[in-house]
Amino acid sequence: MLLEMAADGFGDRVALGPADGGLTYRDLYDSAGAASVRFRSDGSSHVAIADLSSAALPISLFGAAWADLPFVPLNYRLPDGELASLASRISPATVVTDPDSPDRLTGIDGIGLLSRHGLMGLVDGAEPPEPEWDMTGEGTAIELFTSGTTGEPKAAVLRHRHLVSYVLGSVEFMGADEDEAALVSVPPYHVAGIAAILSNVYAGRRIVQLPTFDADDWVALVRAESVTSAMVVPTMLTRIVEVLNAEGPDGPGLPTLRSLSYGGGRMPSPTIQRALELLPTTAFVNAYGLTETSSTVALLGPDEHREAVASADPAIRARLGSAGRPLPTIEVTIRDDLGDKVAVGQPGEIWVRGEQVSGEYRGSAPRLTADGWFPTHDGGWMDADGYLHVTGRIDDVIVKGGQNVSPGGIEEVLVSHPAVADAAAIGLPDSQWGERIIAVVVLHPAASATSDELRDAVRDRLRSNRTPDHVEFVASLPYNDTGKLLRRVLRSDLAHLGDGSTG
After folding, report:
1. Are 65 and 128 in contact (CB under 8 A)?
2. Burial 191-228 (b: 16+ CB within 10 A, else e)
3. Contact in structure between 305 and 276 (CB atoms under 8 Å)
4. According to the model, what pLDDT value does residue 173 have?
């Protein structure tokens, strides 16, 4: 329906690719319809893609919806065995594959393969069928496997009504000018990648794809395609800032970039502050959401970014590290372990409620409460002005001496030190205190800092029980390709620093 509205409203606009030769919205609609015919004829229960972003992605996404089949973007960066395991869980399925790696999913029962080139040849110039859609919105639109940073990936279920609710509640139809272009560099198996396609199609914006992120390529593509908006994860923005810094004050900058949104992980304060300096005319947005909530549920807007940086009030400056305020269509509360609301300023678990919230996984009942609330398993607190501060996954909380210690506060202090490029705080077993705090620190090239110096910095800013018991210096921290810090990898690699007597 969203694509049909776009094709009817601005069918001659370029939807995808370069401004002088890309697919128009009418082309995209026709191609999706033609793809739906193939997907229906295959007898599959799912349509999946295990490939880099290309024109095949939106064609498959909308073609699957047209065929009333769930669309499953698979993480093509997984090892062959793990990728095959995910594919087998959605059999029987048609999987659009990377033509450069045609054999990765061969021999799996019920999995039919269609190369990207094969799909594009199939839909080129084909006539779409008459649309026959179930308009109730109850059908499954997307199944997204969670990143599995702490265990076996689960398939989050997003129904059509969840995604449409998100789009209608956050995007104005035909709200983009004809010269606007959005750069999508987040992989398709991240909910932000799917949300970017849906949102930009509804707004009428041209979509430019960067299949594999590289900061130099990202900057070059923004300039070459006159990109006006983009979304990145924090690790991407850190590298983009490094590129712009290296060009110096006389560099060309990014004059066409009107807005830049970010999310998906903790944003170091030095990175966002420097980005605001380097891109003074760009509107920055911090978007917080989850796969299970169809993307964004809270955001910190452009004016709030600039106000926080310019303010001398510590409370207002602290908003720069917040996720902003809930969207008008979303309710957010902070609850304790018993599910009761906590007072303003008190930490707890973030619960959300709204039409775009799914909280459902394939093969299990929805994790919604009887009155529609979804416990996110993220920790956080809300300030008196309604700004949501996310402290991280509840599983990441360090319990030292019976007190909960959020790693986020420690990490924020560490990365504010001029010698520190990146930092993480984890808990490891300790026979006396339950857990001891380990700070894992990456220094800037040619910079130096001692363990005592960094421990003192944390002690000076936070309470003494937040002071790291040990500082470990490493060359880099482990992240997955959607910007999430892999704390379980750190815990495994540094297990020798804990006291094994407690488990």
Report:
1. no
2. bbbbbbbbbbbbbbbbbbbbeebebeebbebbeebebb
3. yes
4. 95
**111-115/93-97 β-pairing:** parallel
pLDDT category of residue 69 using cuts at 50, 70 and 90: very high
Q: What number does CATH give the domain 23-133?
A: 3.40.50.980
- Over residues 218-237, the pLDDT tens digits come to 999 999 999 999 999 988 99
With the C-alpha atoms ordered 148, 154, 155, 158, is the resulting torsion angle positive or negative?
A: negative
Report pLDDT for 149. Answer: 47
Provide mean pLDDT across the span 328-339: 94
Average pLDDT of the chain, as a whole number: 93
* Tens-digit pLDDT profile for residues 271-309: 999 999 999 999 999 999 999 999 999 999 999 999 999
- What's the Cα-to-Cα distance from 475 to each of 19, 234, 266, 443, rounded to whole Å? 41, 18, 19, 8
- Minimum mean pLDDT among 155-164, 296-305, 314-323, 477-486: which range? 477-486
Confidence at residue 147, expressed as pLDDT on a 0 to 100 scale: 66
CB 197 within 8 A of CB 207: yes
At position 25, the amino acid (one-letter code) is Y
Neighbour order of strands in the sheet with 348-353: 331-335, 348-353, 374-382, 388-393
Q: Are 326 and 357 in contact (CB under 8 A)?
A: no
Q: Which residue is associated with the tokens 């061969």?
A: 106
Spatial contact of 317 and 308, defined as CB atoms under 8 Å apart: yes
Please state the domain extents for the chain. Answer: 23-133, 397-502
Work out the pLDDT band at 502, boundaries 50, 70, 90: very low
The two beta strands, 348-353 and 283-290, are unpaired
**Burial status of residue 60 (CB atoms within 10 A of its CB: 0-12, 13-18, 19 or more):** buried
Residue 92 preceded by cis peptide, ω within 30: yes
Q: How far apart are CA 450 and CA 80, in angstroms?
A: 42
d(CA 467, CA 86): 41
CATH topology classification for 397-502: GMP Synthetase; Chain A, domain 3 (3.30.300)
Q: Which amino acid is at 200?
A: N
